[in-house]
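Appendix C reproduces, verbatim, an entry submitted by the partner laboratory led by Prof. M.T., so that reviewers can inspect both the input and the predicted structure.
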Amino acid sequence: MSQLVAVTGATGFIGTCLCARLRGAGHRVRALVRRPENANGLRRDGVETLAGSLEDAAALEMLVAGADAVIHCAGSVRGATQADFDRVNVAGLQRLLAALQASDAPPRLLALSSLAAREPQLSFYARSKRRGEELLEASEAVAWTALRPPAVYGPGDRELLPLFRAMARGVAPVPGSPSARFSMLFVDDLAGAALAWLQCESHPQGIYTLDDGRRGGYDWHEVAAIVSRLCGRRVRLLRLPVGLLSLPAWLNRTGARLFGYAPMLTPEKLNELRHPDWVCDSDALIRATGWRPRVRLEEGLARTPGWGCDRRGEG
């Protein structure tokens, strides 16, 4: 049955994939966009766009009005202070919840959190994501579900693309221990989980992790071996000295405060990158929704253009 789904963060990496999957499944989509000039692709796909941001209470009320469900993808991943992340990841979600609670018939909410919220002491970002989850847990008027994805990759991703490009050239830069383990998730599988939630009659409430189905996740040796098979060349692990990343991370923090930009690499981000265990599983989500991941890392990389390799071993 076709539903009207309101989406935040629709022009981002995950949001773009999600909107395409929603439209492909026959749902109507209304997207909140901060920069309408970046939403031409959404409009071509039949997505209704609404200019506004998470700071605009009136726009949020219009976004959720008459919707059957809201999928909240918007989030801040760059910054140098706790306030940089809380502005979107906490206060933005708080305003969205207020708009939902003010609705005569509040639509149910799917909020994308992060596996980083499992370790809120590591970084400003992780703490902001956990604080957002706490807002959901305190909400009594809204039916909500939160997803904690691990590292998400696929077509359109820009965060992991430089890493995979380096590996395609034969070098895997490792920020922490080569034996650190982490789960991965192909973006289309994440969108598929959102669709399964949308179609689920039970409306599960709670926080769920999800992965690509590989028990115990991956370590750097295993990822290098996968890239090696795809590219037809040896991929060497290069463990980065502590100071090599720590110095630019500290300089980024200082520069951000002086010049007002939002950096990705900070000392807190390094805490995340060097953490030895980012493994999770999808068991609870599978039981709640029936969704199952379909794409493991090797297939997902083969389906991701622009990083330098395909299954024919062309680099």
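The CA atoms of residues 302 and 310 lie 5 Å apart. Additional entries are available on request from the coordinating office.
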